[in-house]
Amino acid sequence: MSNPSIVIRPIKTGDWPRIWEIIAPVFRLGTTYAFDSNLNQQQAKELWVSNNLETFIAEDESGELLGTFYLKANFAGNANHICNCGYIVAERARGKGVAAKMCIESQRAAIERGFGAMQFNFVVSSNHGAIRLWQKLGFKIVGTLPAAFKHPELGLIDAHIMFKSLI
Question: Where would I find the H helices in 15-97?
């Protein structure tokens, strides 16, 4: 499932323009994330690389950007042991194990930071590939939000809450 030639590392100064190149088309398409599809680059940067989360990239051995993900606490206070992540794979790298590698690495990083569970708050029901992968990696659908997402082609569709214990 994981590809040993994929290297995951925290972002560095200077990585943002490359990250923007792969996330902008996903946001513009408007089929998987509940973000404004007209976000500008600064707004997207605040969402993907803000102070309350850690952002990582996946690269191949030549340094080509394959994907990115963030890791953050999903809740504060007595639920601060549950984290949340978001993942985007570059279009040219899809189907090559990048999302799986990032998800596995995000779980390792979450455990290392003391999180005991991971929750995906809003997985669009038409994102079948992601749902299949998350389930293969041990996540369960624990709730469904009916007609929660305004898909640009499918209209109102459901979104799932997915959860996995890390302990």
Answer: 16-29, 41-48
State how beta strands 140-151 and 117-124 pair.
unpaired
> Which token pair is 26?
């996903």
Q: Domain 7-165: what homologous superfamily?
A: Gcn5-related N-acetyltransferase (GNAT) (3.40.630.30)
Nearest CA to 91 among 163, 27, 145, 151? Answer: 27
With beta carbons less than 8 A apart as the criterion, state whether 86 and 33 touch: yes
Q: Helix 16-29 crosses helix 41-48 at what angle (to 10 degrees)? A: 100
- Residue that has been written with the tokens 């600064």 in this structure: 42
Contact 166, 74 (CB under 8 A): no
What predicted TM-score, i.e. pTM, was given to this entire model?
0.92
Query: From the centroid of its chain, how far is CA 92?
Result: 17
Please list the rounded mean pLDDT of every run of 10 residues in the chain (167 residues).
Answer: 76 94 95 92 91 90 94 95 96 93 97 97 96 97 98 97 97
